[in-house]
Amino acid sequence: MASLTTQASRALARSSPALRLPAAAARAACLSTSSAVQGSSASSSFESPFKGESAYTKVPDFSKYMSKGPASRNQLFGYFMVGTLGAISAAGAKATIQEFLKNMSASADVLAMAKVEVDLNAIPEGKNVIIKWRGKPVFIRHRTAEEIEEANKVNVASLRDPQSDEERVKKPEWLVMLGVCTHLGCVPIGEAGDYGGWFCPCHGSHYDISGRIRKGPAPLNLEIPAYDFPEEDKLVIG
Ligand code: FES
């Protein structure tokens, strides 16, 4: 009888939903947790993990570095620093640009080459001298009174490159010009040619005693460089 009662109670227990509670309860708890998470994520906002302190992050206290003075004093200090640093930066930039320009400009030896000084006492009347200036020959002629007169007698209007002798010289006795033929750049020969001046043997150009083209293919007179007479017997070319 007793065993019958036990068997009946076990069968009842298997069929009863209350006895299956642990599995159902776990499933229900899981569902309720997920719905709670969903609800909370919909309503919450992002919060920085770096805010505040934790065992691993500690924000230092900077309060002791903060100025205790009035705001106007801090502003004054700020203006002073900006002004000072600006002035220092401007001075640095100026020095840098000055150095750059100094390095870019011609050096002293190049500048010295740019001008050539000639002692005119060394050139007798009626003679030619050829000097080198900036890699080009320069003819210097100490002209005689007859040569000056001859140069002035020419009818300027009849010339291919009309120029009076006066326009080509600073002192009538000194004719200074580049020794480069204006045709194709040969160096003419002095005291030669049909006009008693210079003759270019390359293609037969004749220049007169003022260096003006008179015959041959050259289109222009011999070029006059920049020159000056700083002293009575000194010529500076360049
Ligand atoms: S280069 Fe002098 S005449 Fe041609």
UniProtKB/TrEMBL annotation:
Cofactor(s) demanded: [2Fe-2S] cluster
Membrane topology per record: Single-pass membrane protein
GO cellular component entries: mitochondrial inner membrane
Compartments in which it is found: Mitochondrion inner membrane
Catalytic reactions of this protein: a quinol + 2 Fe(III)-[cytochrome c](out) = a quinone + 2 Fe(II)-[cytochrome c](out) + 2 H(+)(out)
Annotated ranges, domain Rieske: 141-236
Recorded GO MF terms: 2 iron, 2 sulfur cluster binding; metal ion binding; quinol-cytochrome-c reductase activity
Misc. comment: The Rieske protein is a high potential 2Fe-2S protein.
Similarity comment: Belongs to the Rieske iron-sulfur protein family.
Protein name, entry field: Cytochrome b-c1 complex subunit Rieske, mitochondrial
Originating organism: Echria macrotheca
